[in-house]
Amino acid sequence: MKNLTSDLLAPGDGRSATLSVSDFVWTRIRGTDDPAFERAYAVLWAEFGEAHEMETREVLAERFRLGSRFRYEMLLVEKDGAVCAVRDHTAVWMDGSVVVHLSHVYVVPEQRRTGLAGWLRAAPIVTARELAADCGDAKADITLVGEMEYDDGSDPRRAIRLAAYEKAGYRKIDPGEVDYHQPDFRTPSDIDASGGPVPIPFQLIVRRVGREMESSIDGIEVRKLVAALFAIYGAQFRVADMQHALLNTERLPAPGKTVALVAPTRPDTRRAL
């Protein structure tokens, strides 16, 4: 993968610099007609589909075709013909900056703790920089944002993921101030049969590239990040489903409000609805 250099690694991912990215085959997928799409999609669906945390092929087909201010990409990493990892992400141009939604990532057990995960966290910056250049500002600010499940003890993988991002240097937007919900990923027929959409509570973790040491974020930036996520979802999900009260951005901190950035593994009490 071109331009995947060690300076893109997060502050805590220094170990990844010792892993040679050239030992792997990196395939950037930009459409469902790509021969590699089905192989990569099957890996992500097996990991996230049953929990309704993975979009259908039809939804992703539309995401690949979003307008010029969006860039959706799926990344397949292989070695000696075997799948090592898959991730997908969407970069969004937001009036002078780029927000990258870190959707899903899966690393096969044999490649965990090798440093490969750090490169998978860095790769979306390449996509963001390409989009920024195409939009006229190659040096635009970049923020990586991920939606993470609350660690309720029911799935040990949640704690592992949060710890990994914390070690890398990511921060969590204080859920005590930002009660974020992801739209309902179920099919329209399932949503209607159950009586309507059920947004899912998630935590937001961020890496503001070049600003990783800052300990707070302004409400206006929080709204910008969520607006970017909802711009992705809103282009494909039904309008009525996106109008659920829990998805109303007016519930977010107002511009000028300072929100703490905390450790991803910190236990939290969500803000009362």
**Proportion in β-strands:** 15-25%
Number of domains: 1
Question: Low-confidence parts lasting 5 or more residues at pLDDT below 50?
Answer: none
Question: What is the CATH topology?
Answer: Aminopeptidase
The averaged pLDDT comes out at 94
Q: Looking at this structure, what is the CATH superfamily?
A: Gcn5-related N-acetyltransferase (GNAT)
The largest pleated sheet is described as: 9 strands, mixed
Structural class label = alpha+beta
Radius of gyration: 18 Å
Number of DSSP strands?
A: 11
| Helix proportion range | 25-40%
Number of DSSP helical runs: 7
Order of helices and strands: EHHEEEHEHEEHEEEHHE
Global outline: globular
Q: First CA to last CA: what distance?
A: 44 Å
CATH architecture: 3-Layer(aba) Sandwich
Description:
The chain is an alpha+beta fold. The chain contains 7 helices and 11 strands. The strands form 2 sheets. A 9-stranded mixed β-sheet has the order 1-2-3-4-5-9-6-11-10, sandwiched between helices. A two-stranded antiparallel sheet has the order 7-8. The model has no long low-confidence stretch (mean pLDDT 94). It has helices spanning 37-48, 57-64, 116-134, 156-168, 188-193, 219-234, 239-242, and strands at residues 25-29, 70-79, 82-93, 97-107, 141-148, 171-173, 181-182, 200-201, 203-208, 216-218, 258-262. The protein has a single domain, classed as Gcn5-related N-acetyltransferase (GNAT) (Aminopeptidase, 3-Layer(aba) Sandwich). β4, α3 (116-134) and β5 form a beta-alpha-beta unit. The protein is globular.
